[in-house]
């Protein structure tokens, strides 16, 4: 069975949902129940995003779905809203499982289900590593409607009998490409083996590499494909710029830019964990509040870093690519690529942290002389030239040593 057969139209529904045209329908017109509409209204949302307008009716019909969308398009609500609708009035048992690649995304999805079910009396638990095992065990054994989990920790609970999926109705694979990139394919297969085959399966992914196609062929039945945007398409609400700067002057240029009043909430990407810590020390030495987030941080430290950043306790979050996806921070004003990402797709994911949900944002990239070729490759892949900004004393084309 080839991917073409998965994407082909079926008798009862088109394989590719039509692009929602302006004006989009209201959430009420999509058929969502009143308790969910109240929760949506509480958060100030009036009309669904394109991915939501396309996916929600399909999911409400009980169809399997393959959602292809970049970050920041509202995909979490695209599946959490109709799934909460499905759970209304049902028995208290584990009926929904969401598998996510990272702890951060796990918490984001849990928060989404909690928010949209606040008038529906549903229970949700997040299951991930790096936090006390016993708290999760107690919640699972007590019975919950929705389990949101990373594959490794969930397998631990399954093997100990803390949770069973005999009554599971919906399986959601969120950011499937990322899960496969992180090597979770064996764990995903072991989890799915313990789930009833007659279920609704929803798969969401930013990209469609062969590995994701194989996963879709294995687990989805005649899925409807919903796609928003194209792979490697940079967010249109983001203003891009490249700053040519010698590598040893990047820290000083960063401080100079961060002193501008419009640099309110800034996410800085670096390639390595030591560099993240070094940049934070440099910023703190310049009187700028900053915190690092990378793989060497404990789960408690990472959650605290995100909370401090969201609440404004610190202005700058310096992160490795662990933070490319799965971060739900709506008010990021600027993304700065302190190091040029090695892949164009990584560039798209990084800058997708700003300009979310139709807001505008700025993405700046610091380009050292040995990074020129990588920037040009990124420009070719995203199909646009990124303007250069020359800062006196920093541009290596005009720079004169002290």
UniProtKB/TrEMBL annotation:
<dbReference type="GO" id="GO:0003676">
    <property type="term" value="F:nucleic acid binding"/>
</dbReference>
<dbReference type="InterPro" id="IPR011545">
    <property type="entry name" value="DEAD/DEAH_box_helicase_dom"/>
</dbReference>
<dbReference type="InterPro" id="IPR001650">
    <property type="entry name" value="Helicase_C-like"/>
</dbReference>
<dbReference type="GO" id="GO:0016787">
    <property type="term" value="F:hydrolase activity"/>
</dbReference>
<dbReference type="InterPro" id="IPR044742">
    <property type="entry name" value="DEAD/DEAH_RhlB"/>
</dbReference>
<keyword id="KW-0378">Hydrolase</keyword>
<dbReference type="InterPro" id="IPR027417">
    <property type="entry name" value="P-loop_NTPase"/>
</dbReference>
<dbReference type="InterPro" id="IPR000629">
    <property type="entry name" value="RNA-helicase_DEAD-box_CS"/>
</dbReference>
<feature type="domain" description="Helicase C-terminal">
    <location>
        <begin position="253"/>
        <end position="397"/>
    </location>
</feature>
<comment type="similarity">
    <text>Belongs to the DEAD box helicase family.</text>
</comment>
<keyword id="KW-0547">Nucleotide-binding</keyword>
<dbReference type="InterPro" id="IPR050079">
    <property type="entry name" value="DEAD_box_RNA_helicase"/>
</dbReference>
<keyword id="KW-0067">ATP-binding</keyword>
<protein>
    <recommendedName>
        <fullName>DEAD-box ATP-dependent RNA helicase RhpA</fullName>
        <ecNumber>3.6.4.13</ecNumber>
    </recommendedName>
</protein>
<dbReference type="GO" id="GO:0005524">
    <property type="term" value="F:ATP binding"/>
</dbReference>
<dbReference type="GO" id="GO:0042255">
    <property type="term" value="P:ribosome assembly"/>
</dbReference>
<dbReference type="GO" id="GO:0009266">
    <property type="term" value="P:response to temperature stimulus"/>
</dbReference>
<keyword id="KW-0963">Cytoplasm</keyword>
<dbReference type="GO" id="GO:0005829">
    <property type="term" value="C:cytosol"/>
</dbReference>
<dbReference type="InterPro" id="IPR014001">
    <property type="entry name" value="Helicase_ATP-bd"/>
</dbReference>
<dbReference type="GO" id="GO:0003724">
    <property type="term" value="F:RNA helicase activity"/>
</dbReference>
<dbReference type="Pfam" id="PF00271">
    <property type="entry name" value="Helicase_C"/>
</dbReference>
<keyword id="KW-0347">Helicase</keyword>
<feature type="domain" description="Helicase ATP-binding">
    <location>
        <begin position="56"/>
        <end position="226"/>
    </location>
</feature>
<dbReference type="InterPro" id="IPR014014">
    <property type="entry name" value="RNA_helicase_DEAD_Q_motif"/>
</dbReference>
<dbReference type="Pfam" id="PF00270">
    <property type="entry name" value="DEAD"/>
</dbReference>
<feature type="domain" description="DEAD-box RNA helicase Q">
    <location>
        <begin position="25"/>
        <end position="53"/>
    </location>
</feature>
<feature type="short sequence motif" description="Q motif">
    <location>
        <begin position="25"/>
        <end position="53"/>
    </location>
</feature>
């Amino acid at each position: 069975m080839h991917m073409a057969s998965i994407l082909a139209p079926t008798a009862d529904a088109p394989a590719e949902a039509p692009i929602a045209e302006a004006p989009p329908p209201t959430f009420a017109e999509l058929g969502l129940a009143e308790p969910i509409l109240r929760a949506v209204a509480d958060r100030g949302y009036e009309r669904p995003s394109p991915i939501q307008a396309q996916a929600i009716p399909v999911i409400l019909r009980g169809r399997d779905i393959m959602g292809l969308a970049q970050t920041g398009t509202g995909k979490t609500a695209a599946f959490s809203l109709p799934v909460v609708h499905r759970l209304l009035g049902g028995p208290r048992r584990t009926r929904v499982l969401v598998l996510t690649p990272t702890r951060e995304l796990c918490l984001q999805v849990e928060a989404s289900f909690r928010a949209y079910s606040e008038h529906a009396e549903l229970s949700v638990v997040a299951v991930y590593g790096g936090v006390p095992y016993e708290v999760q065990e107690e919640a699972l054994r007590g019975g919950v409607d929705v389990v949101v989990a990373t594959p490794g920790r969930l397998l631990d609970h399954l093997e100990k009998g803390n949770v069973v999926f005999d009554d599971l109705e919906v399986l959601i694979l969120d950011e499937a490409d990322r899960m496969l990139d992180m090597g979770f394919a064996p764990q995903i297969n072991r989890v799915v083996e313990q789930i009833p085959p007659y279920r609704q399966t929803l798969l969401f992914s930013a990209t469609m590499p062969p590995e994701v196609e194989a996963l879709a062929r294995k687990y989805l039945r005649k899925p409807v494909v919903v796609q928003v945007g194209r792979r490697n398409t940079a967010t249109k609400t983001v203003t891009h710029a490249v700053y040519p700067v010698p590598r040893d002057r990047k820290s000083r240029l960063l401080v100079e830019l961060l002193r501008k009043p419009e640099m309110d909430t800034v996410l800085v990407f670096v390639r390595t964990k030591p560099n993240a810590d070094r940049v934070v020390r440099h910023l703190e030495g310049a009187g700028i509040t900053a915190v690092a987030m990378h793989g060497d941080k404990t789960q408690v430290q990472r959650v605290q870093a995100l909370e401090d950043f969201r609440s404004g306790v610190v202005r700058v979050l310096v992160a490795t690519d662990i933070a490319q996806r799965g971060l739900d921070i709506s008010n990021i004003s600027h993304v700065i690529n302190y190091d040029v990402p090695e892949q164009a797709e990584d560039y798209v994911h990084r800058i997708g942290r700003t300009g979310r949900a139709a807001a505008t944002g700025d993405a700046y990239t610091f380009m050292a002389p040995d990074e020129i070729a990588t920037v040009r490759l990124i420009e070719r892949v995203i199909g646009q030239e990124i303007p250069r900004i020359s800062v006196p004393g920093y541009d290596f084309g005009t720079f004169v040593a002290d």
